[in-house]
Specification:
Layout (H helix, E strand, L loop, with lengths): L32 E5 L9 H5 L5 E3 L5 E3 L9 H5 L5 E5 L3
Length: 94
Amino acid sequence: MAEGEKWREVTHGLHIKKPGSAFQNRTGDWRTYRPVTDKNKCIDCGLCWIFCPDESRYRNVEGYYDSDLYHCKGCGICANECPTKAIEMVIESW
């Protein structure tokens, strides 16, 4: 704060319509990297699902874990936590 400025209260901020509505918002649109899972390396341990801060990892119909790219922000935590390195972060191509 510059000298002479007085404290001001912020009157407006981020507003989400209701608690728990984050899943309704498409948050993957600002992603620069996306996770790609190699199903041959995946051992179905679920660590990617446990550590995903956006809950965008899920078990697909083939039985291995994949990403919901509408909500994945591309943070790479899933790839970092994968013990078999089955998840690779690749540059997003739109």
